[in-house]
Amino acid sequence: MNRRSQVEASDRLRAALGRLEAIVGKAHACWPEDDSFEGYLRDETYLRGAASLVLRPGSQSETIALVSELNALRREHASEKSQLAFTLRGGGSGLSGAAVPAQGIVLDLTRMNRIIDIDEKNQTLRADCGVILSDLNAALVGAGLWYPVDPSSLGLCTLGGSVATNAAGPSSLKYGTTRQNLASLSWLTASGQVVAAGSVPVKTSMGFSMTDLLCGSEGRLGLILDATIRLAGQPADAALVLAGFADEPAAVEMILQLRAAGLKPRSIEMLDAYSLRLVDFPVGAAGALLMIEFDGDADEVTYALNRLQNLNKSVEWIAARDENSRRQLWAKRKAITLELKKRYPFKLGEDIAVPIPALAATIAAARHEAGLSGVETAIWGHAGDGNLHVNYLLESEAQLPKLEPLMLSLARAATRVGGAMSGEHGLGRLKRKIAQNVLPDEYFAVQRSIKTALDPHLLFNPALESVA
Ligand SMILES: Cc1cc2nc3c(=O)[nH]c(=O)nc-3n(C[C@H](O)[C@H](O)[C@H](O)COP(=O)(O)OP(=O)(O)OC[C@H]3O[C@@H](n4cnc5c(N)ncnc54)[C@H](O)[C@@H]3O)c2cc1C
User: Fold this and answer.
1) I want to staple 49 with a disulfide (CB 3.0 to 4.6 A). Which of 59, 101, 221, 438 is the partner?
2) Residue range 124-149: average pLDDT?
3) What CA–CA distance (Å, rounded) separates 146 from 141?
4) CA of residue 162 to ligand 1 center, whole Å
5) 215 alpha carbon to ligand 1 midpoint, in Å?
6) Is the CB of 269 under 6 A from ligand 1?
7) 399 — phi, psi (to 5°)?
8) What pLDDT does 125 receive?
9) Is 444 within the bounds of a domain?
């Protein structure tokens, strides 16, 4: 294309984008020359993308109008199709690069933040996709109900983003991930239709489960407009206990023992020696730490604590029973990430999931391999459900090329033992190439067929279809 036709194409594109801007209003559009634009090219990974425009719709009707106008523009400007696509963005707290655009338009959905309905009898809450997760529980204060999906990022991530990634947290051991707590949703297809899926009763048998398909879809199949989530009754009592162990195999043995005894904690977290030193847990020198939380009524919690103590009398558990002490210990657990960010300019948090008996060997292998590459690690995780965060800590950008072989080896290790290469963050742009080296071709063929059926012209999140 010569210079003149390049200028004409760019003018045409700018005019087309202007038609989209008119739907949300100038105040809610952000162009490359604006100060806040750069933030939309990133999530919480080290990846940086590219885009031409950011739009911030304030309502479902504006969002529906945007998709309809985008389809019209694509028909008029067929040669500019790749620039006329939406990258969907919630809180931008993702750890897989799924909301990092390659080109086109970023749709920031955080202005769509109404809590639409709290139904105490059905124990459900319906809200727009852009509500920040912690605002859901704030709205439930006094109702005796809570939303038990508790990713550490709940003050940053949106309901839509958490559904699109099937987010989970420590309490998922007892209460399930987003998927188990999602009753229904309404979503906008690439052709502009609004479709309702799911139901209030847990039991449905009505063909393909679209809620299950959309949950974890990373915005590849459609835009989740709003979702109805299931709530749980606030437990009357809770206790958090922690103890140090000589090493990870000893800590994992404890988890296996308590499972075999039929104990059902709300969460079991495991931290390696390096992580627990960073935040001064009250356990002295230990090779690994277990944090176990029980909830229920007071008798249930007391019974569980006694039973745990009797399983192995040599373990010294430190118990926090009041809310304040529990909060302080959880704050220490969450502060580890901040401490690491202060010390290392680059941190990549992997999130494989493996069967519990394979936890200790997987940790040892991950640490050993990283050591061979000269990369430091901090390893912790929601060990009760086998979900491990292997954090690779890099001193400088020059070490970034070391990550891919380590991620590949970790993904292979998880897959070999029947686990998953991502337990909660998703594949995003970060792990797609690695996935292609680990998962069978048929896996991708089926996924591609589903994408093609629902979004044949790559209107939503096109960057997730390539492996670049
Ligand atoms: C400090 C920290 C701690 C974290 N802890 C956890 C944790 O404990 N557990 C956990 O699971 N994750 C955790 N995460 C990762 C992240 O917070 C989750 O993946 C979260 O669910 C992403 O939500 P978001 O709104 O920020 O989505 P974004 O990052 O904006 O987007 C994530 C994906 O969702 C898609 N998406 C967003 N909104 C919609 C929508 N309305 N419709 C369709 N697709 C949409 C995007 O296109 C993208 O593919 C953590 C992140 C940080 C920074």
Assistant:
1) 101
2) 97
3) 8
4) 5
5) 12
6) no
7) -85, -10
8) 98
9) no
Is 382 close to ligand 1, i.e. is its CB under 6 Å away?
no
**SS3 state at 188:** strand
Q: Is 88 in the pocket of ligand 1 (CB under 6 A)?
A: yes
Co-location of 248 and 349 in the same domain = yes
pLDDT band at 203 (very low <50, low <70, confident <90, very high): very high
Give pLDDT tens digits for 432-466.
999 999 999 999 999 999 999 999 999 999 999 98
Judged on CB neighbours under 10 Å (0-12, 13-18, 19+), 156 is middle
One domain, residues 307 and 214: no
Q: Which two tokens stand for residue 366?
A: 């991950």
Please say whether the beta carbons of 451 and 220 come within 8 A. yes
> Residue 304: its pLDDT value, please?
97
Atom of ligand 1 at shortest range from CA of 187: 42
We report the CATH number of the domain holding residue 357 as: 3.40.462.40
Give the pLDDT confidence of 299-322 residue by residue, as tens digits. 999 999 999 999 999 999 999 999
Q: Is 71 among the domain residues? A: yes
Q: What is the pLDDT of residue 1?
A: 64
Classify residue 155 by its DSSP letter.
T
> Does residue 447 sit within a domain?
no
Residues 424 and 387: their CA atoms lie apart, in Å, by 8
Going from the C-alpha of 24 to that of each of 111, 127, 151, 189, the distances in angstroms are 11, 21, 31, 20
d(CA 395, CA 374): 10
Q: Quick one: pLDDT at residue 109?
A: 98
Q: Does some domain include residue 445?
A: no
Asked if residues 279 and 332 have their Cβ atoms less than 8 Å apart, the reply is yes
| Domain interval for residue 248 | 238-416
